[in-house]
Amino acid sequence: MLDLVPFPSLAPLFPISQIFISMADHFVNDPIKVISELKVSKLRGRGGAGFPFWFKLDAAKKEQDSQKYIVCNADEGDPGAYSDMYIMEHQPHKLLFGMYASGKCVGADTGIIYIRGEYPDSIRKMQAAIDEAIQQNHIKDFRFKIIKGQGSYVCGEETALLNSIEGLRPEVRVRPPFPAQYGLYGKPTVLSNVETFANIHWILSNGGNAYAAVGRSPSTGTKLVSLDSFFVRPGIYEIEMGTPMSQVFNDYGKGFKTGLKAFQIGGPLGGIVPIEKIKDLTLDFESFSKNGFLLGHASVVSIPTDFPMIKYLEHLLKFTADESCGKCYPCRIGSQRGYELVFKSQTEDYKIDRKLFDDLLETLELGSLCALGGGLPLPLKNALQYFEEELKTYFR
Amino acid sequence: MKAFINNLPFDVLTGETILEFVRRIEGAEAIPTMCQDDRLENFGSCRVCSVEIAREKDGPVKIVASCLIPHCSRVLTYTTTPLKSKN
Predict the structure, then answer these.
(1) CA atoms of A49 and A67, how far apart (whole Å)
(2) What residue in B sits closest to A329 (Cα-Cα)?
(3) Residues A309/A312/A313/A318 CA torsion (nearest 10 deg)
(4) Closest partner residue to A328 among B47, B83, B87, by Cβ?
(5) Which residues of B touch A368 (CB under 8 A)?
(6) How high is the mean pLDDT of chain A?
(7) Letter string b/e over residues A334-350, b meaning 16 or more CB atoms within 10 A of that residue's CB
(8) For chain A, how far is it from start to end, CA to CA, in angstroms?
């Protein structure tokens, strides 16, 4: 779908004219067709939540507002995930086309790409691609703007990202209203991940049905998977949805360099999957959630056998405490208190009250405003469930 | 316009939040709050005023901060469930 080239690649970029000319004219003036093709394709947001993409377009299109925006979330903060960087640096025109087609479909005239500041190369290459597209006259009545991210992990949360673009403190907004109704500067906004937009070109050129035939419905298409350096062959792979995870690890990653006991799949809020559960999983949203994990952004971070699980939990809690926007109490205070408990259990003669810890997790999960605090309990619960034996010395 | 508190129907005023609605019917003590103050705009940071809401009876419930959610008709608000009392 994305014509994956080896990473890192010195191959020339995919010719821009092929991306734009062949299709833009067919589709840009036919929003109904774009939405129906995307609906048939069952394309889902690739940022982690897996929300049907056509629904966002449809909702924004229905809004009666002369000003609308397309925003691309390229604030790829999940440790171990490099798929957005790959697309921006190697196939930027696919992203531009996806945003352009979506913009024309809903009636937006501005596309904003929010790229994290730690990706200076991506910013340069995207800007070069935009300049090239404008120079060759492929983009009509539409402008692109790159915003260099200057915030924390929580800027990747869609409403915090909108605040960050507006120059406000990146705090999460309350939903409803959803961005499709009240987004950037209060205008209807379609917001999605880099990989989602990059898929649109293939769908429109090959048809929604062809896309839906790939993968395992309702998770259609392919997913970029990032394998970390504990694999014999680390890198980014575009893999069909529904592929068994054991095949992903053995055929693509070629096995492991050292002994591993678990993986955290889907970023710091994804589940911790013990190595023996890998055989039960396939690469799609449903299989992961059914087994109590999260596909998320499909980044794989390996946890070596000799790495203490309690250290990993400490890191997760510290990470959330550092990156929390601080708006809601459960996330701001809960993650800090959780970190203190776990830290104290290792350094002092102190055992964590399991009930207290469970209550903390419940409050985080149910009370938090956004997915940062709400998602943190998942990996912690996974660890407590699958590594009970190892962790029990720290609990009472 | 009618909305429900613990399955009992009451009239809703336009522009009311769930918090205002429940407090008007059941008194100021019905939902505890911490960061809310009538002189300030509601911010929703403490989550103490969280309630469970549902679109239909026995339907899926969602936990929301009642101070921020504008009330719409036919929303069922639950203030007395075990989960709520626990928190």
Answers:
(1) 27
(2) B46
(3) 160
(4) B47
(5) 47
(6) 90
(7) bbbbbbebbeebeeeee
(8) 51
pLDDT at res. A24: 61
Query: Over the Cα atoms of chain B, what is R_g?
Result: 12
Identify the helix (H) or strand (E) that includes residue B47: none
State how far the alpha carbon of A380 is from the alpha carbons of A72, A362, A375, in Å. Answer: 30, 11, 10
Exposed (0-12), middle (13-18) or buried (19+): which is A382, by Cβ within 10 Å?
Answer: buried
Cβ atoms of A166 and A179 within 8 Å: the answer is no
Using DSSP, state whether B54 is helix, strand or coil.
strand
pLDDT of residue B70: 81
A173 CB within 8 Å of a chain B CB: no
Assess A370–B contact: CB distance below 8 Å, yes or no. Answer: no
Contacts of A369 in chain B (CB under 8 A): 44, 47, 65
The model's pTM is 0.88
Residue A122 has pLDDT above 60, yes or no: yes
Indicate which of B17, B42, B47 best probes the interface with A, i.e. most A CBs within 10 Å of its own CB: B47
Radius of gyration of chain A (CA): 21
Tens of pLDDT, residues A161-213: 999 999 998 888 888 789 999 999 999 999 999 999 999 988 988 889 999 99
pLDDT digit string, tens, across residues B48-87 = 888 888 887 888 888 888 888 887 656 677 766 555 544 4
Nearest CA distance, A367 vs chain B (angstrom)? 6
Phi-psi region of A221 (alpha: psi -120 to 50; beta: other; left: phi over 0): left
Neighbours of A271 (CB within 10 A): 28
- Of residues B46, B68, B83, nearest to A329 (C-beta): B46
3-class secondary-structure state, position A157: coil
Lowest mean pLDDT among A175-184, A284-293, A350-359: A175-184
Let me know: does A184 contact A381? Beta carbons within 8 Å: no
Q: Work out the number of other CB atoms within 10 angstroms of the CB of residue A207.
A: 14
Whether the Cβ atoms of residue A103 and residue A109 lie closer than 8 Å to each other: yes
Contacts of residue A94, defined as CB under 8 A and 6 or more positions apart, other chains included, come to A2, A14, A19, A87, A197, A198, A201
pLDDT per residue as tens digits for the range A225-236: 999 999 999 999
**How far is CA B24 from each of CA A34, A387, A389, B19, B73, rounded to the nearest angstrom?**
48, 49, 51, 8, 16
